[in-house]
Amino acid sequence: MATMRISNEVLTFEFQGMERFWLGRRTLTVPLRSVRQVAYADRPLRLARGMRRGYLVSGVVKIGVWGLLTGPRQLVYARRGIPGLHLWLDSATVDGGFDEVVFSTRDAARLVRTIAQSIAATEQDGAPPGQNGPATEWAGRATGRAGTAPGPRTGERA
Asked: What is the pTM of this model?
């Protein structure tokens, strides 16, 4: 079961068992300064596109790397019935060269707000994330029971 943690300066995605096999990695660490945009995804399965290396059960689950030949290069962990977050990244500063991350989690709405606040604080005065406002530490399971009300419906770039 995949997990995601947010600290003041990084997002850490951790993968277990077969997820590691299909993604080709145990963890992905994304500096918050590398996140260009974040959006709530009501149906994250629809966001994965392009040629893939990974696991797919149509309409149920997608785990792997999408966009291998034509891009954008996406790390995808998406499950039916579980909302997600869609991150657009600066691929030059992210291990693996990912342009996007699509990640299913029941706490997607809260995570989108938290990440967006960190990005806004950084853009406001150019200080690194974590230098403006209170520290945020959050950890949760991707398919845990806790959830929040859905945020705005989006999945398209603004």
From this structure: 0.77
122-157 pLDDT tens trace:
776 565 444 433 334 344 444 333 333 334 444 444
Helix ranges, 27-127 (H): 108-125
CA 11, CA 55: separation in Å to the nearest integer? Answer: 23
The CA distance from 119 to 132, in Å, is 10
Look at residues 51, 32, 28 and name the one whose alpha carbon lies nearest to residue 102.
Answer: 28
**Token digits for 102?**
């699509």
- 60 by Cβ neighbours in 10 Å (0-12 / 13-18 / 19+) ranks as exposed
**CATH T-level fold of 3-126:** PH-domain like (2.30.29)
